[in-house]
Amino acid sequence: MNVRPAIVFAAGLGVRLWLIHAFPIVFGGDTILRLANRDRILLAYQLPLLQSLIWGLSQITTDLWATRLLMALIGAAAGVGFYLLAAHFVDRARASWAALLLTTNPFLIELSIVPYQEVLMLAALCFAFHFYLARRLPAASVALGLACLTRYEAWAACPVLALAHAGLTRRLPVSALLFGWAPLGWIVLHLGLSPGGTFVAEWPATFGRLVRYLYLAWITLKNTPAPVWVLAAFGLLERPHDRRLRTLAVFFVLFLLSIPFSAHGESPDPERRVTAREATLWIAAVAMAAGFARTRWLAWIAALGIAWGVFDAHRFLRRDTSEPHLRLSYRLARYIDRAVRERETAVILARPMPPELMRNYLDKVARRGGEPALRQARRVLESMDTSPPDYQRTLVHSRIGRHRLLSRPAPGAAWWFVWSDAPNPPPASGMKQVETLSEGALRVVVYHSEP
Which residues have a Cβ under 8 Å from the Cβ of 380 and sit 6 or more positions away? Predict the structure, then answer.
């Protein structure tokens, strides 16, 4: 009996549960937006699989720990999928070390303890390629479809597997449907790559978009522990000749070619940067190269890489959850859960989302699609929760639901929580200041109605 996948899964899950316990604050703008809109499945241009899981879980429980456990399970499963894929090319021992290096990568750990999509995509892709190489085609089709309903980058695998399968069967239409059903269905449903009023791809406006490759290379370099790079160098010196690796290589090349065409760059330089999370597949490629290493020091170097990754994950999370807005939102949520009694309502006055974000997005939609697209974009935004980020963070961390925790002034509210950077002052009559919560230069003044 091969227990190695179970060891990889247990190690990945154990590290994630420990870090979730150590760092209960949820970070990341996209993650908060997903949790604040957990009653919806379609969010603008985002593909629906992860949000569907969050929505389904919310029908059972809205406890934040349940969602984070779900993400930890997905992260641990990605390590198992990577092991199964690597085992097609190397022996089980090296595949195990490679999978452990992947599942303890600090960057991927961060992405898999809060609701980001990338590790779910990685897990589904690993299983899709594994099932294809194992000639379990129905399972490969399902796994690839799930990946394609998570991130658009996974779509690059569809022509690769479809053409590889068609080369064996000489039935291209059947192969295209087998491995392309998810993107084709999505395009037919929305009459395009994304719902009306949204966009995901565009022709590069400047050669500056090529700088995105340097940016992602830097993200990969600094987020991959040095021992993993050492093993990857040994692995590349092996120059493996397994022809099946061409399937993975072609997919990775197509993914790389798509990067300049992403319409959603990252501030402050959207032309030259995309989201750092695009480096997920780059990091996986480095871990795969490390799996090819042959050296008598393999176990020692890999063990050092695993320990290094866990240490960096702890250090990164301590940094990323120390921002004052995040910490004060979390403290406020804990205060609200203790102080606000049943049937009482509370108002949080916080700094709204920067208006230039919405304005820039709508301007881009108008340039691309004119007035009809602009109207659709406004409808998309109106259907989503675009309340102040600090309100959303507090709502997500609190056990009090949206029906009692409000983001706007409301008559009869027993509690008012006013952030120091909020534009609106609290009402003076009938309210008494009872406490002030602070974090750095930020403050939340607590008001309660007098009996």
Answer: 44, 195, 197, 198
